[in-house]
Amino acid sequence: MSQTRQFISLDQAQAPFFVGLDLGGTNIKVGVVDDGGRPLSWLSIPTDPDKGPEDAAARMGQAVKQAVDQAGLEPSAVARVGLGSPGTMDIPAGMLIEPVNLKGWDYFPIRDRVSHHAGLPVAFINDAAAAAYGEYWIGAGREFHSLVLFTLGTGIGCGIIIGDLSIDGENSHGAECGHLIIDYAEDARLCGCGQPGHLEAYASATALSRRADEVLSTRLREKTSLRQRIDQEQQKPEEDRRGVPELVAAEAEAGDPLAMNLILETARYLGIGIVNLMHTIDPNGVLLGGAMTFGGNDSEVGRKFLDRIKQEVNRRAFGVLAERTTIDFATLGGDAGYIGAAGIARVEHRQKGGSP
Ligand SMILES: [Zn+2]
Question: Angle at CA 167, nearest 5°, toward 172 and 45?
Fold first, then answer.
């Protein structure tokens, strides 16, 4: 669901320039942006995590050079590179700790190795925080002073930006809002992190699939087109199969009440998590991005999903916050990560007085 941004040409661009890297378990996105966050070039390379982190760091260095060349720039025009990476990590040390989606990359000094291969200084940040910064800089949050971004996918990522500051915490484990506790019962659902009752165990794509399975296996007499749709999908070769959340969205769009209810339940859980954050941070806005946004503002299901979140917020939040906090979908799609990583590089560049 990655939109292609409008590229600007070099004569429209404002120096200095920054390169953003968005490291994922499957692909690495690389983009060059100008001082206003406007992209000049973009490319994607496979992560190939099995080849190990040093190999990837070397290819990231090459990709940075290639993206700079594609933008028509000399390497000397680039002030700094930003690298957004999945955790766990030690941000001040520039180190991956135990990244879940990058097996065998533990305790790799990724910031300095990418910097070595790119020949440029590198700013290092959590991938969800990078996406949040992207939305804050030039996306749905560009009018805000402070925002929270949830990325809804296999898990739930989160970034909190206040002013130009990403809330990373003292141990690089801040803003882990996917692990807010929303159910304290002993038999609460287990999260991917191993702990019970976390938001991610209720409202991620994985959780939605699990809840769909449960409903379909326990309420056998309920009329729903979802059961047949999932069964049909199971007949297809694995690589062609669409994910259960996508099927739930399609059936909800077609008018299936059970599918719609699964989505509205997801919204209710998210609403509860959002209220907890509103009462902690009181941000200008809370944005929802990632793969599981049910078509966003462009689809009826997406709009109902958002309305249900707002309903839950109105019911549970302080009145002044319910009234004033914007809750909406993010707008940068798959570009938020590399643009935001470049933005964090820009912040670091400015803090250091423009020197590397
Ligand atoms: Zn958790």
Answer: 65
Spatial distance between the Cα atoms of 296 and 50, rounded to a whole number of angstroms: 35
Ligand 1 centroid vs 134 CA: distance in angstroms? 25
Kindly state the tokens that stand for 244: 């259960």
Tell me how far CA of residue 39 lies from CA of 8, 22, 31, 36, 191, in angstroms. Answer: 6, 14, 7, 9, 37
Q: Which residues pair with 96 in a beta bridge?
A: 89
pLDDT at 219: 82
Chain-wide mean pLDDT for the chain? Answer: 95
Expressed in angstroms and rounded, the spacing between residue 222 Cα and the centre of ligand 1 is: 32
Is the pTM higher than 0.85? yes
pLDDT band at 354 (very low <50, low <70, confident <90, very high): confident
CA distances (Å), origin 320, targets 126, 148, 182, 210, 232: 31, 18, 23, 36, 48
- Ligand 1 centroid from CA 339, angstroms: 27
Q: How far is the CA of 278 from the centre of ligand 1 (A)?
A: 20
Give the Å distance between the CA of 178 and the centre of ligand 1: 6
Q: What is the mean pLDDT of residues 223-228?
A: 91
Cβ proximity of 81 and 18 under 8 Å: yes
Residues 6+ apart with CB under 8 A from 265: 211
* Confidence bin at 221 (pLDDT 50/70/90): confident
Task: Name the pairing type of β-strands 78-85 and 122-126.
Answer: parallel
Torsion on CA atoms 91, 94, 99, 101, rounded to nearest 10: 110
